[in-house]
Amino acid sequence: MRQIIEVTANPIDRGRFKVPSLRNVGLKTTFMHNGRLSTLNEVLDFYTETNGQVQFPQNQDPAVAAIVIPPQVRPALLDFLTNGLTDARVRDEVFPFDRPTLHTELAPNPLVVGNGTPGSGGVVPFMVTPGTPNLGNDTFRFGVDGALGGAEARLQLCRTADGASSDSNVVATLGPIILDGSGPGAGFGTLAWGIASSARLLGDVVFAQWIVTDPAGVKGESRSALVRLQFYAADPTSCGCTGDLNCNDRVGFADLVRLLNNWGSCDLCGGDLDDDGIVGFTDLVVLLGAWGGC
After folding, report:
1. CA 198 to chain centre
2. CA distance 257 to 255
3. pLDDT at position 239, please?
4. How far apart are CA 283 and CA 274, in angstroms?
């Protein structure tokens, strides 16, 4: 916070600041013009010059130097500042003071979990996921780096972290691809994997892992650490009903076409509305039953 003297250049303004309101002061985490105090207790110590706090003496108003807070009054004053001046709606972030959750406040998504297994040169391949797993993200990509250059690599997707240890639990396999680069730890590559716009996938969790053919690895392969992805809607008001496979808030002909295109064994495609691992007649009945506006 700038001193007023920085604007007026008048020596009489030295040490003066525009004083903010005390409303909701109990919700603050830093105090004073430079944020050097972290509690209201310290602020009271500053104005009463107790517990090692010292005021700024130059050009000081006599009223500031004369502040005295009797010990028996201090608890009530702190309670008034902390609670009496706090608007519960602001504290609880409810209407009209609600706000969207910031991306930085969320847990990382994708999130690296567990450990990989090394290959040539003792290097463990690592997953690169530059995008976010929002529904309809048709540019989502999985990358791998630090693998054996020129080797074959595939990406496995499973529903549980434990499932990655067994190929029988894998729900989808992408690739294989041949990695660019040459030599241990120098291989890299990318696979595109468009995420369906489907209410069916909203909130679903999937675990991904790169598996690289590598004669120096356990059972002739090296593996990246698992990465956990949870599908979400970029627009939280969309994708709200079963059968809306394209997230346009309506179940209609486009959703029917998408379901028929996914007919048969299918997972993570959004068309498996009854969670049996197959897009079939039951899913068609569910979609038709939801026909119309959501």
Report:
1. 20
2. 5
3. 67
4. 6
Residue spans of the domains in the chain: they are 5-91, 112-230, 250-293
Query: Can you tell me the distance from the alpha carbon of 293 to that of 241, in angstroms, rounded to the nearest whole number?
Result: 9
Q: Are strands 152-158 and 205-213 parallel, antiparallel or unpaired?
A: antiparallel
188-198 b/e (C-beta count within 10 Å ≥ 16 → b): bbebebebbbb
Give the residue with greater pLDDT, 274 vs 144.
144
DSSP 268: S
**pLDDT over 90, % of the chain:** 46
Residue 124 burial (CB count, 10 A): 17
Please report the sign of the dihedral spanned by the C-alpha atoms of residue 287, residue 163, residue 135, residue 103.
positive
Per residue in 15-41, pLDDT (tens digit) is 788 888 999 999 999 999 889 999 999
> Alpha-carbon distance 294 to 284, whole Å?
17
Greater confidence (168 vs 192) lies with 192
Q: Could you give the CA distance from residue 216 to residue 23 in angstroms, rounded to a whole number?
A: 65
Residues 157, 173: Cα–Cα separation, whole Å: 6
**pTM listed for this prediction:** 0.62
pLDDT tens-digit readout, 170-206 = 888 899 999 999 999 999 999 998 888 777 788 889 9
Whether residue 37 contacts residue 31, with contact meaning beta carbons closer than 8 Å, is answered with yes
The tokens for 72 are 């028996």
Half-sphere exposure of 65 (CA within 13 A, CB side): 7
**3-class secondary structure, 20:** coil
Residues in the chain: 294
Phi-psi region of 199 (alpha: psi -120 to 50; beta: other; left: phi over 0): alpha
Pick the CATH number of 112-230 from 3.40.50.1980, 2.30.180.10, 3.40.50.720, 2.60.40.10: 2.60.40.10
Q: Which amino acid is at 275?
A: D
Looking at residue 1, what is its pLDDT? 67
Q: Which amino acid is at 16?
A: R
